[in-house]
Amino acid sequence: MSISDPGRVPAAQAATRLNLGQLLCNASRQFPQQLIVHGERRFTYAEFGRRVHRLAAVLDALGVCAGETVAVLDWDSHRYLEAFLAVPMLGAVLHTVNVRLSPEQIAWTIEHAADDVILVHEDFLPLLDAIRPRLAHVRRFVLLCDHAGGEALGGLPFAGEYEALLAAAAGDFAFPEVAEDARATTFYTTGTTGLPKGVFFSHRQLVLHTLGVRSTLSGTGQGHIGADDVYMPITPMFHVHAWGMPLVALSMGLKQVYPGRYEPAKLLRLIVREGVSFSHCVPAILQMLLNCPDGREMDLDGWKVLIGGSALPESLAIAALERGIDVFGGYGMSETCPILCVAQLTPEVLRRPFAEQVRIRCKAGRAAPLVQLRIVDDEMNDVAHDGIAQGEVIARAPWLTEGYLHNPEAGAALWRGGWLHTGDIGTIDADGYLKITDRLKDVIKTGGEWVSTLMLEDLILRLHEVAECAVVGIPDPRWDERPLALVVLRGGASLDPAMIRAHLAGFVAEGLIPKYALPERIEQVEAIPKTSVGKLDKKAIRAQYAG
Distance from CA of residue 395 to its chain's centroid? Predict the structure, then answer.
């Protein structure tokens, strides 16, 4: 079924539609006293439900109708969660703007999505002022503030301040019936080549993703969450719906804590103060929290952390486990809503040696319900599931994007052969665990051998002195490409490049990596370029060091 323009459905079908409104209604009724926390503000689920109705009334008064687009520029907050529901439930489309893109890219995404109304946090007013000539399509703005007042509205055509507008609106707004295949959300990929691409998802896809992930994570055992857990995202809500986890938490009736702008010390205090027991983030964020001086004496025992965005290094997993953190990997991408699989340990795996358990925690994981995963060769023939044979990871699931907004050619390439092509290379072992070995565009071909940059990074990060590492291939007239390693050392540490090569030579002797994987160039740097969502920006690294 194709995603259609929003529309009403016959009454006979309304009871069976898959709609975000069902998630809100069930949560408000089943868990009315559960809490949503942002700063000093605390709302029960019942109050939150009324606020969603009030926001819808505000947007309706601003003329937002089915098919129009409402954008949000905000830190992680209760407001964002309210917009996750109110905007699509109106039949409109929510555009979650990546505030870490460049001003030029942000302006382009606002134009490309044809945003009609923008909800904007006061911190981003200078940004909008800078790109104001590009905002001709935007009719009105709503100001978001983390403090009382908000009178200084600036020069943009503001309808008012968010909390004041909600206070004056009715809490019983009557939502229209919206078709389950109506487009609910749009956001833009953070790829490092060309302009960002818009991906979009329907109500049906978001509900099915919510139920699939909930089924994967709920229950008992390693990495599972239940009614007593407290959820806090440490993945921005603009990035793939915060991995869809806010809606999962809502459906399970969990206490939810929204941290606003990410500051390591504040995040750690919230974990302790609010009893946070489940979060998700990229490896760089977890490393930052473990290294934060304010958190070295904090009790993080029992905190469950799902890692995605890039591979979980074994050294980071061990460091987290030593602090009592139940850390494990997951896998997906912007185009997959995003979760495809999670590396939870089965009871049988939990009986294996610790080192093997760590290796499995660092894999991408096993497929969630309704997810089909294959690893294929260039002709789309399946390769063996022996943990050794490599191929491109392709997928099917009922919640994958149909394509790219206003870009049918790229969408056709994404779905060639009837399967979504991830652009990742991986293996699947006999237990069904997927391991991502590299990106197709990042793997290094040198001396006739394929070298995994992810493997090299993981091995280098096993040196205690190394805090961060990135490996890329750079052109070489003799060997086609050669590995280049960038390393950031821990404060006060000293490590000679020859010592890193000697460390890697040991793994060559073990047969774990080929001799051609030994990098001739190892550069110590103060920082490694990253994308707007904290991934290593290997395109920028290659451009900087190729010469």
Answer: 18
Catalytic residue numbers, as ranges: 189, 335, 445, 450
The pairing of beta strand 521-524 with beta strand 480-489: parallel
Domain positions in the chain are 51-201, 263-439, 444-545
Helix (H) or strand (E) holding 471: strand 466-476
Query: Which token pair is 244?
Result: 């869809």
Could you tell me where the beta strands, DSSP code E, fall in 154-197?
158-161, 183-188
CATH annotation of 263-439: 3.40.50.12780
Maximum Cα–Cα distance across the chain: 72
How far is the C-alpha of 206 from the C-alpha of 242, rounded, in Å? 12
pLDDT in tens, 327-382: 999 999 999 999 999 999 999 999 999 999 999 999 999 999 999 999 999 999 99
pTM above 0.90, yes or no: no
Joined together, the tokens standing for residue 350 give 């939990």
Judge contact between 528 and 488, C-beta under 8 A.
yes
**Burial annotation 469-501 (CB, 10 A radius, 16+ → b, else e):** bbbbbbeeeebebbbbbbbebeeeeebeeeebe
CA distance 202 to 398: 11
Architecture field, domain 51-201: 3-Layer(aba) Sandwich (3.40)
What's the pLDDT band for 1 if we cut at 50, 70, 90? very low
Q: Which of 271, 229, 242, 188 is nearest to 76 (CA)?
A: 242
Fold of 444-545: GMP Synthetase; Chain A, domain 3 (3.30.300)
Q: What secondary structure does DSSP assign to 126-156, as a single string?
A: HHHHHTGGG-TT--EEEEE-SSS-----TTS
Query: Alpha helices of 194-282 — where are they, by DSSP H?
Result: 203-217, 240-243, 245-252, 264-274
